[in-house]
Structure formats: C-alpha cells, structure tokens
Amino acid sequence: MSTNPPDDNATEESVKLKESGKVKEIVAVTIGDDKAQETVRKALAVGADRGIHVKSDTYIEPLGIAKILKKVVEKEKPDMVFFGKQAIDDDCNQTGQMLAAMLNWPQATFSSKVTLKDKSMEIVREIDEGLETVEVNLPAVVTCDLRLNEPRYASLPNIMKAKKKPIDQMIAKDLGVDITNRVQQLKVEEPPKRKAGIKVANVAELVSKLKNEAKVI
Amino acid sequence: MSVLLIAEHNNKNLKPFTLNAISAASKIDAEVHVLVAGSGCESVAKEVAAVPLVKKVLHCDSPNYQNYLPENLAPLVTKNADKYDHIVASANTFGKNFMPRVAAALDTSQVSDIIKVNSPDTFVRPIYAGNAFATVKSNDKKRCVTIRPTSFEPAPKTGGSAQVDKVDAADIPNFSKFVKREETKSERPELGTARIVVSGGRGLESGENFKLINDIADKLNAAVGASRAAVDAGYISNDHQVGQTGKVVVPDLYIAVGISGAIQHLAGMKESKIIVAINKDGEAPIFSIADYGLEADLFKALPEFLSELNKLNTIQK
After folding, report:
1. Dihedral sign for Cα atoms in the order B97, A30, A28, B264
2. Residues B275 and A183 sit within 8 Å (Cβ to Cβ)
3. Residue B315: pLDDT band by 50, 70, 90 thresholds?
4. What is the C-alpha to C-alpha distance for residues A125 and B176, in angstroms, rounded to an integer?
5. Between chains, do A135 and B245 touch, taking CB under 8 Å as contact?
6. How far is CA A100 from CA A198, B63, B277, B313, in A?
7. Residue B309, CA distances (Å) to B189, B209, B216, B283, B313 in order
8. Are strands B32-38 and B111-114 parallel, antiparallel or unpaired?
9. Which residues of B touch A89 (CB under 8 A)?
10. Domains in chain B: boundaries
C-alpha cells in the first residue's frame, strides 16, 4: 500500500522540524486495514519515532477519521498535527480542518512554508489568488501542499531499523466514537470519453481551424 | 427548507465564483440565503441582494471577518446554521478552508466538490482525478456541500432586490492571525473564468520563456495557466497551476504548450470546449484528448503562432 503523496510531505516536514531540534518526537498514525501499516513503516523509515495503527477493515469518511484522530490526539497530546492537504483518490480535502475544529485548534491549510516559533507557527499558504501568510498558535493542525518540501527516500539501513520501531495498535470501532458513514455511494460511472481530434500540419492550419472551424478566436 | 450559501468577496466586490455557487444552490432549493461576512463589506451585501436567485442576504460586518480566517468564520456560519438544511460554498481555496470546520461542528459529513445536483440529497462528484464520477446520497439531516464552480453557470447578477438582514458577529477563538496576502496582480482575465487559457509546462524550460506564452495570451485576451511541473520548477507562481491539486478550468479554448498531459493535469482542464496541444513529442498523452494537435518545437511554433494571429483582421475578445 502506498502513502497518499501529500502525506509524504507531511512526514518530511515533521522530520525536518525534528532534525532542527525543535521537535522531540514524531508519532506516525494511520487508519485502515492491516496493509495500511506499511505507510506507518515508511514514515518510521524516514525518521518518525513510533507508530499508531488504528485498525479498520471498512472505509471511514473524513468525519469519522477526524473523530478517531481526536481520540489519538487526546491520548498523545502533540503540539502539531501534520496532514497531506487532500487524498488523491477521493479528493475530499476535509480531515485536517475537521480535526482542528473538533479540537478547537487553529489550522493552516495548503501550506508551502512552515516556520516554527516559540509558541506559534508562521505558515505560507497557497491560495487561489497567490500566497497568504498566517500565524497560528500551538497546538495547531497543518495540511501540506506538495510544494512544501521534497520528501526523502528511506535508506536500506533505515528501513531495517524501522522494523524495530514500535507500532501500537488500536481498533477503530472500540474507540467509542460514532464512525457510521453518512454519505452513501449510489453508483460510479466513467465520465464521457473525450476523443482525440486531428493533428494539424503547421501553425497556419491550426490558426485557420481555430478561426473558421472551431470559431473560438 | 432553505440553503445558506457563504459568499466569497474581498470586502468590496463579490468574487465571481459565488455566482456559480448561487446557481448550484438554487438547484438544491429555491430558497437561497447568502451570508456576507466581512469588514466594511456593505457594497458586497448590496451586490448579492441584486442577484435575482438570492431570496435573503445575511450581512455580518465585523473586523473579525476581514481576512476570512476559518477559525473566525466557521463559528459564525455554525451559529446561523440552525434554520438551514444545506450549507453551501465554492470548492476553491476559500470554501475548502472553512467548510470542513463547519461540517465538523455540525457533526455532518461534508460532500466536497460536486459537479451536479440530482436532488436535495443526491449529488455527483468526480473522484480519481476526474476519471470517475460518483453519485452520492447524503443521509445527514443537515448537509455541508462544496460546489465546483466551473460546473455551474454563473447566476445573473442584476434585477433582484433581496432583503438584507444584519446578523451579529460570533465569538472568535483568537488563536490565529492573518499576516499578509501576496496576490499575483495581472491585467489578464482570471484563470478560473477566462474564455481562453494558454498554459505552459516543463517544455518551456525556464521562467523567461513564459514570455512566449504571455505574448499569445495577451493577443487572445487569455489567462495564463501552467502545469504543476512548471510551477514546481519555479517558472511561474502557484496561482497559475491547473490540475487536480491546482485549479479546474473550463474555457472555450485551452492551449496546452509543452505539457505532456499527466492525468493530474487533465483533471483540471479536460472539460474545456476546444483543446489545442503543441508538443514536440508526438506520443505525449495530451494529444489523446486534444481537438487540434500540433507536433512541433514550441520555440518555433509559438513565434509563428503569434505572427499568424497578427495577420488576422479580427480576434474575438
């Protein structure tokens, strides 16, 4: 099982903060079936200290995931929780913000630069209009853009070492939170396929087609 | 039954995508109310009241909302959510930022980025970078929905006269602070709503070479887009990125130059009416969805393109 790409940026950023001496411990958390543990092992191999695997064999919506993570946060009491900004399969873009709301913490979403201060973080966020800088007090939730950093690869010795790092297991349905899904998938369809058009021989033909055939210029 | 829509604006003017969201909201329920929260944003409240599809405007004016911090905005939305079955916003960086906080506070499972309203509880949304459309039914009593603006026509702007009600500000948590916003200033049309988009990819090889793209864009009164590779390489700023993790655009004409056509890029532009691809690699996947493909070296083709455009007597604006 592979890690959702922006979640690799989340791991990398926390490892960088630890390397800078500002963070003491990194706990990597995943929720999913047994295979999901591989994503925690991967985080352990690039620098996380220990892992938590919340086991669930069924799909849980972002709302349920956030409730589970709230339980984990209440137990672990971290100063920061890093997420990828969205899942690249369902593209929901919700979980980090939901967790922040449930904990009554501030959030910095779509982050492309993180500066840790004493009791706060200054974060540059990618927004539709350009860039926005916010300062959030700790504890806080950060969701990471792909441009935040360049995730490192694990070296073989570190992959071996990661096998010895502990992963605690919890069972999602035993956590006492309502994780019933509320959104029902009725059907999944393939969108109408777009057909390839024609190749034009040169620029003059292209301009003529756009002007006289497609009538868009 | 009614819908509460959260307006996006800059305290002076309404952002155009709110009009698309209003038209989507009206397909959920005809009773569309719009919350305008900001600081000194009375002109925006008036602008929204003139939109015929809007039945009521809730206007909340307070310095708390000047910069739309989600930590401040979400409690205001939640406080006003009682009377509504649906809370709606655009699925852009504005709506994506605060809406999940509202959904969590209301204990409701958000439906993100819908492209179609089938009924008040059933929606269609793209998954897997737009390679599949899922029809989903929300079983929550109160529903938080974000709308892909380019999938809905903008609502007409004038002719209405909705009632404007003042609402009080909510308590704010005071744990986040706006520092600054660096907006890319451009005379060109906005990428999200432009009729024509000219995009450059890694094939441009440098930021300077984007001048070739800009010249064409200026000639066609087009917006400039880019692939993630071009933004990552630092050729152009992030607000130009088209694709799964950037912006979704649906122009009448999309010209992809030096872009190979990874599925993540296609997710952001493949609904465009006419697609042109210019690429020296004849096997590039972008050609499989292009209406007109030109297999050519862009450094030769773009100057020629400009000179051919200059020969035309008229160009649609």
Report:
1. negative
2. no
3. confident
4. 14
5. no
6. 50, 23, 42, 57
7. 19, 19, 8, 27, 9
8. unpaired
9. 127-128
10. 3-166, 196-311
CB pair distance less than 8 Å for A128 and B192: yes
Tell me, yes or no, whether A181 lies in a domain.
no
Spatial neighbors of A145 by CB under 8 A, at least 6 apart, are: A6, A9, A85, A110, A111, A112, A126, B245
**What are the strands, taking DSSP E only, across chain A?**
27-32, 50-55, 80-84, 107-116, 120-127, 130-137, 140-144, 167-171, 183-189, 198-200
Read off the pLDDT of each residue in B206-229 and give the average, rounded to a whole number.
97
The per-residue pLDDT of chain B, averaged, comes to 96
Closest CA to B91 of B14, B150, B132, B31: B150
Mean pLDDT over residues A92-113, rounded?
98
Nearest to A184 among B102, B136, B301 (CB): B136
pLDDT score of B28? 98
Q: Are strands B196-200 and B253-257 parallel, antiparallel or unpaired?
A: parallel
Task: Identify the bridge partners of residue B254 per DSSP, sorted by sequence position.
Answer: B197, B275
Mutating which of A182, A190, A200, A209 best tests the B interface, going by the most B Cβ atoms within 10 A? Answer: A182
List pLDDT tens digits, range A151-195: 999 999 999 999 999 999 999 999 999 999 999 999 999 998 888
Q: Would you call A194 and B276 a contact, using CB atoms and an 8 Å cutoff?
A: no
**Residue B182 and residue A132: Cβ atoms within 8 Å?**
yes
pLDDT of residue A1: 78
Query: For residue A73, which amino acid is it?
Result: V
What's the ipTM? 0.95
Phi, psi (degrees; rounded to nearest 5) at B142 = -110, 135
Partners of residue A124 on adjacent β-strands = A113, A133
Task: Select the CATH number that applies to the domain covering B3-166 from these four: 3.40.50.620, 3.30.450.40, 3.90.830.10, 3.30.1330.30.
Answer: 3.40.50.620
